[in-house]
């Protein structure tokens, strides 16, 4: 993108209309990370939450060395739990191994379930087997979506020795949990996984059945 276009985006980011600022952030999609990040930083403290949220997400997509410390600081100190959750999610997009410790701290210490959910998802995205104990703990969450995230993440990190804990959800009343389980077991090639998948392949919900069938084909 030429310099004039970058200048136009910069001006649009200073507009008093939040819609203009959102459109400017969207325009950065085709801009190089090195050019985009300085512009994104201009609206990280925007008065409008949707603008801040979109900017945080953009830092996870436009990956420069500058993004990681900014996202960690937001995750650990921002007063808005939605922004902390966005930062946790963006750290997963970065796929930077240094994010492991901040994400673990967020899962254990943040009081908001949405932040813990995002942290669990991102721990799966990192594909770091060290996350196993955290994710097993997440299976005990009272929040269904956190359980769903943990099941999926345990599959992503290929935690084969977590199969016993996972197959306990085969009879869950929540079909999304059963679907996440069917998908996760496709990454964990054990006899128990195959047995659970054969059971799930007969599930009454079509999406669970489909996920289990695909995982069985992958394993067998």
Secondary-structure content class: mainly alpha
User: CATH architecture of one domain, please?
Assistant: Alpha Horseshoe
Query: Which CATH top level class of one domain fits?
Result: Mainly Alpha
The CATH H-level superfamily of one domain is Leucine-rich Repeat Variant
By DSSP, the count of extended strands is: 0
How much of the sequence lies in strands comes to under 5%
Number of helical elements: 14
Q: Judging from the principal axes of the Cα atoms, what is the shape?
A: elongated
GO cellular component, one term: phycobilisome
Protein name: PBS lyase HEAT domain protein repeat-containing protein
Pfam families: HEAT_2
GO molecular function, one term: lyase activity
Protein topology:
Elements: H1 3-13, H2 18-27, H3 33-41, H4 49-61, H5 67-77, H6 81-94, H7 100-109, H8 113-126, H9 132-138, H10 144-156, H11 163-167, H12 175-185, H13 191-200, H14 206-219
Helix pairs in contact: 1-2, 2-4, 3-4, 4-6, 5-6, 6-8, 7-8, 8-10, 9-10, 10-12, 12-14, 13-14
Report a brief summary of the structure.
The protein has 220 residues and is an all-alpha fold. It contains 14 helices and no strands. The chain has a domain of 59 residues: Alpha Horseshoe (Leucine-rich Repeat Variant), CATH 1.25.10.
Explain how this protein is built.
One of its GO terms (molecular function) is lyase activity. InterPro entries: ARM-like (IPR011989), ARM-type_fold (IPR016024), PBS_lyase_HEAT (IPR004155). It contains 14 helices and no strands. It has 220 residues and is mainly α. The protein has a domain at 162-220: Leucine-rich Repeat Variant (Alpha Horseshoe). The longest helix is centred in the middle third of the chain and has 14 residues, at 81-94. The radius of gyration is 20 Å and the shape is elongated.
């Amino acid at each position: 993108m030429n310099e004039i276009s970058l200048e136009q985006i910069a001006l649009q980011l200073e507009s008093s209309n939040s819609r203009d600022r959102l459109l400017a952030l969207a325009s950065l999609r085709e801009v190089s990370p090195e050019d985009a990040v300085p512009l994104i930083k201009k609206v990280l403290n925007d008065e409008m939450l949707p603008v801040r949220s979109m900017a945080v997400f953009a830092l996870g997509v436009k990956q420069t060395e500058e993004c990681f410390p900014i996202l960690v600081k937001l995750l650990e100190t921002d007063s808005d739990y939605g922004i902390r959750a966005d930062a946790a999610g963006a750290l997963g997009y970065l796929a930077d191994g240094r994010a492991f410790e901040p994400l673990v701290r967020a899962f254990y210490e943040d009081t908001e379930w949405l932040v813990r959910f995002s942290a669990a998802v991102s721990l799966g995205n990192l594909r770091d087997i060290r996350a196993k104990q955290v994710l097993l703990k997440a299976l005990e969450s009272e929040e269904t979506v956190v359980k769903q995230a943990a099941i999926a993440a345990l599959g992503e990190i290929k935690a084969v020795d977590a199969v016993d804990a996972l197959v306990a959800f085969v009879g869950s009343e929540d079909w999304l949990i059963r679907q996440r389980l069917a998908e996760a077991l496709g990454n964990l090639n054990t006899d128990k996984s195959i047995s659970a998948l054969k059971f799930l392949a007969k599930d009454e919900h079509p999406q669970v059945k489909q996920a289990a069938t695909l995982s069985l084909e992958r394993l067998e």
